[in-house]
Design goal:
This protein is of the alpha/beta class and 160 residues long. The protein contains 6 helices and 5 strands. Bound molecules: adenosine-5'-diphosphate.
Length: 160
């Protein structure tokens, strides 16, 4: 069975991420979306909240699972009997970071392959950072995130 891992912070998941999940799910038998617990990042949503938001958004994709991940990514990938990391690629600025990460994973374990899926033109400018900023200032999130993510963002920023 071919298992692909889509790792990320997904704080929160955007329609750009969902587009990547949908397309990646067609390339593998099983896709695991791994929500990283990154202690260096001050996240808006907890890891559990991020997992729940993704689970709801991928409910229509039968071969997609959502999981929490921590520690070294390649250890996680191997623990799932996978060798394939799938990442989305937007602009040149993503390339440099992704290039370095992919080579680093390869250095740590030569069996691991990182596969890139080019962004959908519609979402090339969508990032979780941009979405959080837009939500903070009560901008229009329609078409950028799911309705549930939109409500979750509204709830976070109405308390402040
Ligand atoms: P990280 O914090 O690890 O960079 P993110 O949650 O920001 O993780 O993103 C996870 C993955 O999704 C990355 O590979 C990123 O490049 C990709 N991604 C994010 N937004 C988009 C988008 N709009 N189109 C395509 N890929 C995207």
């Amino acid at each position: 069975m071919r298992i692909g891992i889509c790792p990320g912070s997904f704080d929160p998941v955007t329609n750009g991420h969902l587009d990547i999940f949908e397309r990646a799910s067609k390339l593998v038998d099983k896709l695991i979306v791994a929500v990283l617990d990154n202690p260096n990042k001050n996240s808006l949503f907890t890891q559990e909240e991020r997992v729940e938001l993704i689970e709801e958004a991928v409910a229509h994709l039968p071969n997609v699972e959502v999981d929490c991940a921590s520690g070294l990514l390649i250890d996680y990938v191997k623990s799932k009997n996978s060798y394939m990391i799938i990442r989305g690629l937007r602009a040149l600025s993503d390339f440099e970071y992704e290039f370095q990460r992919a080579l680093f994973s390869k250095y740590l374990d030569d069996e691991i392959e990182t596969v890139f899926i080019m962004t959908n033109n519609k979402y090339s400018y969508v990032s979780s950072t941009g979405i959080r900023e837009l939500a903070k200032f009560h901008g229009n999130l329609d078409g950028l995130v799911t309705e549930t993510v939109k409500k979750a963002l509204e709830a976070k920023f109405s308390k402040i």
